[in-house]
Amino acid sequence: MKKHLAAFLVLSASALGAHASPFAYVPNEKSGTLSVIDCATDTVVDTIAAGKKPRGLVVSHDGKFLYVSDQTSNALLIVDLAKKAVVSKVVLEESPEGVGISHAGDWVVVASEISNSVSFVSTATNQQVFSVKTKGKNPEHAEFSPDGKWLYVSAEEADTLDIVDVAKREQVNSIKLGERPRGIGFSPDGSKAYVAAEIASTVYVIDVPGQTLITQIKAGKFSNGVAVHPDGKHVYISNGKDASVSVIDAVSNKMIATIPVGKRPWNMALTPDGKKLYVANGRSNSVSVLDTESNKVIKEIPVGELPWGVVVQ
To answer: Is 249:237 a contact under the CB 8 Å cutoff?
Structure first.
């Protein structure tokens, strides 16, 4: 009896450990696939077919589904991770790109570049409930504030950050930034937001309660992706032309490190514990894994062609 109990406990612990290990999901635009990376081993363990040009993506809070924008079909693909297949599609407006998910997990949003709009999709029904027109042209990224009250949208052609009041379902403000704003990240307490502008090669720090610009920080060339550490102390910026990631001290608003990565680093994601940063390198067809304590690359993982970004859960 004791042997059976011991064996059961070992198997249970093993299963729990396997389940606890996060995975990184990478959309490969040119391959039309998703690469699945086991964060424990930093190896690709699965490849899932996902439309013709997958771009933005988020994972459901229960870890069962991926929501992926497919630019070619103007749709949000719903991927069942247990089945490793697309099981449903939500028709969207033209040229969907950045995808975000509310902290409550009830809304998935998709920014559509050509239609200048953001679609709100209910995760309960997997249907679009409403759409918000943005005043700024060519919205790329859409991110919820931690309290769920605001949706920040980067409008590339307008050089603005558009602010949507989620309860009102309308845009209520716009903040002028530098040329071609792209990635957006919030501090864990929701007091600040960071927006990287590509052509300006600058990061803009936004006061969220006041909806005003606090300061701007010069980054590397063609800054675009943004990831904020779970402890709020550091902000990571990918620099497309420099093939690097810059590290910002969130207290001093100063760059404290620059880390070489693959070619054309794009969007990024941190593990839940903040120990590793995964960077999609669009022109290297790889993902760089950064150790956030040493600020060094510890592994380069080959993925599909033209990886657009990463989500980790």
So the answer is: no
